[in-house]
Amino acid sequence: MNFLSRLSAVRTLIRKVVALSSPYFKSEERWKARGLLASIIALNLGAVYLAVLFNDWNRVFYDALQNKDQPVFWQQLGRFTLLAFTSIIVAVYKFYLTQLLEMRWRSWMTRQYLQRWLDHHAFYKLELARFTRTDGTMPDNPDQRIQDDINQFTGATVSLTMGLLNATVTLASFVGILWALSGGFSFSVAGNNYEIAGYMVWMAVLYCGVGSVLTHYIGRPQIALNFQQQKVEADFRHHLIRVREYSEAIALDRGEKVEGHQLDLRFTSVLANYLRLLKAQKNLIWFTAFFGQAALIFPFLVAAPRFFSGAIQLGELMQISSAFDRVQGSLSWFVDNYSALASWRATTDRLTSFDEGIQAVALADTAQSAINSVANENAVSASDLTLALPGGAVLLRDATLAARPGDTILVQGPSGSGKSTLFRALAGIWPHAQGQIRLPADFTAQAMFLPQRPYIPNGRLRDALSYPAPADTYSDAALVQALQEAQLPALATQLDQEDAWGQKLSGGEQQRLALARVLLRKPRWVFADESTSALDEPTEKLLYQQLLAHVRSVQGTLVSIAHRPAVAAFHDQRWTLQPAAEGQGARFNLQMSPAQG
Length: 597
Prior knowledge:
This protein has about 600 residues and is of the alpha/beta class. About 65% of the residues lie in helices and about 15% in strands.
């Protein structure tokens, strides 16, 4: 990689950091954020000023020791006490305010990313896109990026930025001191005499310049390895969570060995990449440790001739050493922080790709789907509706359908014909849909979609039952009645019990709890996708009677996907997805008929 390429990479990184950072400092919290940042900057500048005072104290104190000047010795001890106490106060509040800024910034960014991830079903569409794209452009493990990457990004950005500021101000403050203390370095070449002014400064620049270049070449592999480490760690954690969520199914299938093997493979990837990262860090530490140790003695070696010649006293030698250490430390900021910079860059890249992924699915949603809500329409209808799979295969082309108040419709067709995909399109979450879908103005508020496996949140039962509405939306009497009508009377006394209900309840109980939500919320439009498949036929019949009675009471519409013949009795229309003939440009056709036909 040549110099221009590296410069371009640095500019790209800076643009990414600015794009991720600037929204917070322009947000509704901008004055608090800017105030904290200004305070931290002021404290850093104060710390540098104290370092300058300590440097001057070195000269006076060690000269007093050399001259055996006891009054000055005790005076400088008192001065040291005052400087040390002030330095402690600055260090404590610099730490506290820095952590406070990081916490507030992380809190704001987390809420913003959570909102963007959840809005417009982006969380669903990201997963859909990630499993269908093979180019690696879709971000993985959004939970890790929101929970861990944001935390690392805010902390590292504040720490590295303030460190760079501190190094820059320290360099500006001490380079003049070191220049003045250095004197001139005289030498002869071919009978001509030359003198280098401020030679200690030039030695520090040379020393750190060589160190920075070598550090970059030695530590460069850490950037990619840090990125990969975060990925494999997240993959391992994600599979652990899946084992916990599907613990019953895995136990019933005796799948412990398979899951153990899969977890071992992922953990092996974690360890293998970590070992590569560890070796890369070891190589860098070999150099930085040598670089740091050599820096302790280097100024004494360079300044020793002037001390032994009597040109400077012990105090000035110690002041030169202190000033050189400050200048060298400032110039070595890149060397000292290379590992942190590599990790920060990896985190920045992951957050940027997550941000771009959310934007990509939003653009794809706009480009691929044409779903309109018509306020004066009292039906769900579609014309020229085309449904495709993420890979591009067309399931259904130019279909026309309509569901009106009072209709009860059964959707049937072979497995993989697109029945559930049709429901997803009507719900507005399927990005691979074209055509026109007209919906009532109150459809979002008055429609419920029941999947075969409903989502049951952990926590209180009343929260799981009223989901997604707050639990206090409904009275206890209404909650109990819904449970009883859904044939779950045993749960009526457990409304305030907290549990992992998605694991505690059987598949049939989970489906009945989802139906209880319908009876509680009383929507006008109900779309049931195999929502009673885990129930026995008598219970299924009883619950469909309840569901049908509710739909009729609100003059609503029921659309069901089901395979059992007994369910057909509760519907007066049938939408059938049948295999299409070759040359029609789709795999299936939609036919509408009475249920008896």
